[in-house]
Automatic annotation (TrEMBL):
<dbReference type="InterPro" id="IPR020471">
    <property type="entry name" value="AKR"/>
</dbReference>
<feature type="site" description="Lowers pKa of active site Tyr">
    <location>
        <position position="84"/>
    </location>
</feature>
<dbReference type="InterPro" id="IPR036812">
    <property type="entry name" value="NAD(P)_OxRdtase_dom_sf"/>
</dbReference>
<feature type="domain" description="NADP-dependent oxidoreductase">
    <location>
        <begin position="32"/>
        <end position="268"/>
    </location>
</feature>
<dbReference type="InterPro" id="IPR023210">
    <property type="entry name" value="NADP_OxRdtase_dom"/>
</dbReference>
<protein>
    <submittedName>
        <fullName>Aldo/keto reductase</fullName>
    </submittedName>
</protein>
<feature type="binding site">
    <location>
        <position position="117"/>
    </location>
    <ligand>
        <name>substrate</name>
    </ligand>
</feature>
<keyword id="KW-0521">NADP</keyword>
<dbReference type="InterPro" id="IPR018170">
    <property type="entry name" value="Aldo/ket_reductase_CS"/>
</dbReference>
<keyword id="KW-0560">Oxidoreductase</keyword>
<dbReference type="Pfam" id="PF00248">
    <property type="entry name" value="Aldo_ket_red"/>
</dbReference>
<dbReference type="InterPro" id="IPR044500">
    <property type="entry name" value="AKR5G"/>
</dbReference>
<dbReference type="GO" id="GO:0016616">
    <property type="term" value="F:oxidoreductase activity, acting on the CH-OH group of donors, NAD or NADP as acceptor"/>
</dbReference>
<comment type="similarity">
    <text>Belongs to the aldo/keto reductase family.</text>
</comment>
<feature type="active site" description="Proton donor">
    <location>
        <position position="55"/>
    </location>
</feature>
Amino acid sequence: MTINHLQSTTNLHNGVQMPWFGLGVFKVEDGSEVVSSVKAAIRNGYRSIDTAAIYGNETGVGQAISEALAETGLAREELFVTSKVWNADLGYESTIAAYEASLSKLGLEYLDLYLIHWPVKGKYKEAWRALETLYKEGRVKAIGVSNFQIHQLEDVMKDAEIKPMVNQVELHPLLSQQELLSFSQEHGIQLEAWSPLMQGQLFDHPVLNDIATNHSKSVAQVILRWDLQRGIVTIPKSIKEQRIIDNANVFDFSLTDEEMARIDALNENRRVGPDPDNFDF
């Protein structure tokens, strides 16, 4: 596993290459805010952008992609764009319609990755069938899920023709998800971290600060490096260009086995987001 620059990719189990590092746009306002952050990311070497229907900013993300491609001369195929179907649209026909709506807002002909956003009981299997249809028709390059625990993955795979290629979950040093990571690796499912920096709550952590000082790096850079060394795709969010650049400055150092173990030991199974087994939206 060689992850030595911002465009390094992991091979999903269907052979599609997904960048290890990308930009998340959760809670980034549609319009100029999301346009400027996505363009800044692409301009500075990012090739993966992660959005979702519920974020309400797919139109701005699409505008940014269109403008960035024109300004940089990159081809659409050089970007990896992810979106997600929201809970209200889970169902066979409604998921396919939601995919069309996302494509239309983004102004794209296909997505690189489409995910079921949350495992709504009794609804995600029909949605998965729709994703399989979109995939078999060649309308999306890869399909996956988000916020699925092991038992929900097992439940999907019981009836699936195609197993998920990616599972995007909350993951950071206080929620290290080791069991889920082991299960995912065993089944060839790529784990991806959302909220990798725990919404800034870890920046004063003494252990992380100590390790950061050892490498003349920030706590954010240490956490993102920890993700990569565990084989986890990571998508930190920022709207400031300098922070977008700094977040990606993680390819010129490595954490030692001892430092990795120190960070692993911080796990408290503590979430900042909803519990995938107990949510009501």
